[in-house]
Design brief:
The chain is mostly helical. The protein is built from 21 helices and no strands. Helix 4 crosses helix 14. The radius of gyration is 24 Å and the shape is globular.
């Protein structure tokens, strides 16, 4: 940026750049990210619905929440499908249009006709699939529009993230507040309206109608004799074969890159870090059933943790970006254990002996852990981006993010298994302290492979910020019980 004029001129330039960047298509992109953030409105309602209406145990809630996140594991598949198979003549618009409708119908069903656990998980998984598909499609549009200039890429990413955080901020507090006055089903019905924004804005995407080669062949074959019809059929089969071939070529390239020691070794650390079990479900039941925290307070705590996560991102970008990543992760891991173990004070009521009310203790503990979790999360994304070789970086990064999401699901399932095995239920918290102890100590296990990061070239760590898209990761909440 330019020199004189103090701080006002650069700020005016920045605002002018944002104004210039915003057009109907950018507004459409922002709407998809906004919907991703605002769907957090249903997070508390979903947990209370499964806990109170379906009568599920902490272990069941944890296990089933992991299943509902599975669509985020196969995101590269949606990218491949939308890139190669136009729907109603479009590769982007049609998928966004349909994902909004499907997502809305899933939430509508949850608010009206769903009554069993199986139906609940099916509808939650469909809702998750809808937002994952829209996420992949809009990410590809952002990548296409970011090719022109780095400045445009940074501006676009900022607008996307701003929209997502604005959506999350709007609903974080209201998610708890609404549950004080209405049932979870009513919250689901409100949530059903938001995916329709994606459908509404899908027509604003600037996209040429895709040319479908088989159309001409089909027309000719209708007028022609059986030889021509046979030729058209062969052409169609050839097209299908080339599609399958393209998929396998891409899959082989990704596999070859992923199995390189320079990629595999660092990613083993990243995936191990994400896969350690967590006790969030059992702890949530303790907060709501044992110490009787109200939904309204839990909503307030969500606002605080969202702000703490933003602070963590800011702290990493401004103060820790140039600190060796291995050092950041080592200290984050070592600090997270004693901080996580402070939950034992709450379980045993020792915080009251120290004069700290339960609510303040929960809030403080959660805020610190959220900020620390985000500080550790940013370098993990940097590692994932840095290890991708040139030529397959886009597909490989998407694949690595899918594995990252799969590790998050494994974390949920291991936590569920541990909770069930140690007999923690909706009313029995005798062994919750042991679950928390095991989960926190297990987070030290990835340190045994932290030297795997030595093979990554971390020169100019901060320069790729515009390329890394943390929204590729489904926010499975294993850093915080709220």
């Amino acid at each position: 940026g330019g020199g004189g004029g103090g701080g006002a001129a650069p700020l005016a330039e920045e605002l002018a750049r944002y104004r210039e960047a915003i057009n109907p298509e950018v507004l459409a992109i922002m709407s998809v990210y906004f919907v991703q953030g605002i769907l957090g409105l249903s997070s508390l309602a979903t947990t209370f619905f499964m806990k109170d209406e379906l009568g599920l145990s902490p272990a069941e809630v944890a296990a089933l929440s992991g299943i509902a996140s599975i669509p985020w594991v196969i995101k590269p598949l949606y990218g491949f499908i939308s890139d190669t198979l136009p729907l109603f003549g479009y590769k982007r618009r049609s998928y966004l249009f349909l994902s909004g409708i499907v997502g809305s119908l899933a939430w509508l069903a949850l608010g009206t006709v769903v009554h069993t656990t199986t139906e609940t998980i099916l509808m939650r998984t469909i809702a998750s699939l809808a937002i994952a598909v829209s996420d992949v499609v809009v990410d590809s549009v952002v990548v296409e529009r970011s090719r022109d200039s780095q400045s445009r890429a940074g501006t676009l990413q900022s607008l996307c993230w701003g929209s997502r955080y604005f959506g999350a901020g709007v609903t974080a507090y209201s998610s708890g507040q609404l549950l004080e006055t209405m049932s979870p089903r009513s919250v689901f019905l409100i949530t059903a309206a938001f995916p329709l924004l994606v459908t509404l804005f899908s027509n604003f995407f600037n996209e040429e109608r895709a040319v479908v080669p088989s159309k001409a062949a089909a027309t000719t074959s209708a007028k022609s004799d059986s030889d021509d019809a046979l030729l058209a059929q062969e052409t169609k089969t050839e097209g299908e074969d080339s599609l399958v071939e393209k998929f396998w070529v891409q899959a082989k390239e990704v596999w070859a890159a992923a199995t390189l020691p320079s990629v595999l070794n660092p990613m083993l650390f990243v995936l191990a870090w994400q896969a350690t079990p967590n006790a969030s479900s059992g702890f949530f039941y303790f907060l709501t059933n044992q110490i009787k925290l109200r939904p309204e307070f839990l909503g307030r705590a969500q606002v605080a943790t969202s702000l703490a996560s933003l602070f963590g991102v800011w702290l990493y970008q401004t103060k820790l970006k140039d600190v060796p990543i291995k050092k950041v992760l080592l200290w984050c891991t070592l600090l997270s254990v004693p901080l996580g173990l402070t939950q034992l004070l709450l379980i045993n009521g020792l915080n009251r002996g120290l004069g700290i009310p339960d609510t303040w203790f929960v809030l403080g503990d959660d805020v610190v852990l959220a900020a620390l979790g985000e500080i550790a999360f940013m370098p993990l994304l940097v590692i994932s981006a840095k290890v991708c070789p040139v030529g397959v970086e886009g597909t490989l990064f998407a694949t690595l993010m899918s594995l990252f999401n799969a590790s998050g699901i494994l974390s949920q399932e291991l936590g569920a298994l541990l909770t069930a095995k140690l007999g923690v239920t909706e009313s029995n918290f005798d062994n919750l302290g042991l679950v928390i102890l095991i989960c926190n100590l297990s987070s030290l296990l990835p340190l045994f492979v932290i030297n795997n990061l030595d093979s990554v070239n971390f020169e100019n760590d901060g320069t790729d910020g515009g390329e890394i898209q943390p929204d590729s990761v489904e926010p499975i909440d294993d850093r915080s019980p709220l």
